[in-house]
Amino acid sequence: MAAPSGSAQPLDPAGREASRWQQTSLLSLVPAAAEECPAQADPAEPVALAPMPLRTPVQTAPAQAAVSEPACPQRLLILDTETTGLDPERDHCIEVGAVLFHVASRAVLSQLSLLLPCQSNAAEEINGIDASVSRLEQPWQAGLHYFQELVASADVIVAHNVAFDRPWFGRGPLPVIEKPWLCSMEDLRWPSERRLKATPSVRDLALAYGIPVWAAHRALTDCIYLAQVFERCEALDSLLLAGLEPRRLYRAELPYDQRHRARAAGFRWNEPVAKAWSRRLSEREARELDFCVKPVEQEPDAREAA
Question: Among 226-235, 270-279, 288-297, which range has the highest average pLDDT?
């Protein structure tokens, strides 16, 4: 009598043992593959393996290049000179002052002042330096060597009138300075709430920041004033970075009756461009003006020493 559908048939002991050790061919589970399988090859012949399908590489969007913000210089060497005249070809530097300033700490790290020996000083009424005093015995050569060490440790050289101070270096005993220069008069855009002119004097800057002015026209004194101004600048990093943007000379395109707009924006008449209002600007600053300007130089100033 057949067992009912779905009920298990009893196995004898021998059958149970055979079922336990019965092996099933995996190929039998895939009939199509078993049918397509070729006859067994001669063991002496190598069996060629079917090539593995190539994996299609996963296409990923290229990672955007990280835009690194320019690093703010941390060591500023604020320097100033006193000279016997205005012409570096004929006159001489009689005094150098320098202050090494650390931006993040808003602190003075070192300072230096030295007289250089000169035979005469036609500008004595302005700077108050007697040429005979400059010739008194003192270790000015050692002082000049230390000045070079300060230059080497600085990231940027700051002067309040780079156009005047820079040409004196590399002449006479003064070393060549191969560092970026930053003009605190021309390149820095001081906060509007300080109510300063576009190109303020050191005295005006000091007073605007509440710094007492107790002397003038000595090299180290002006450096100390600038260092104290930097100490009180809340946004000094952004001020310096904007000032270090590459600049070129632009000429204001304004009619005569609108010349006051160029003057208010810090442009100068007849200097350095003859019969024109001109000023050094970055491309960003030129775009932000409310009047048209035209570049008068071919290459921008990359802030590097010549």
Answer: 226-235
DSSP string, 230-274: HHT-TTHHHHHHHHTS-BEEEEE---GGGHHHHHHTT-EESSSST
Average pLDDT over residues 263-283: 92
Same-domain pairing of 137 and 263: no
Pair 220, 269 in one domain = no
Q: Is 76 helix (H, G, I), strand (E, B) or coil?
A: strand
What three-state secondary structure class fits 122? coil
Please check whether residues 303 and 252 belong to one and the same domain.
Answer: yes
Report the range out of 152-166, 187-201, 274-288 with the highest average pLDDT. 152-166
Q: How far, in Å, are 12, 164, 219 from residue 215 at the CA level?
A: 121, 21, 10
Residue whose token pair is 């060549």:
176
Distance between terminal CA atoms of the chain? Answer: 113
Domain of residue 107 covers 75-244
Q: Given strand 277-281, what is the order of strands in its sheet?
A: 268-269, 277-281, 248-252, 293-295
What pLDDT was estimated at residue 38? 47
Residue 240 confidence (pLDDT) above 60 = yes
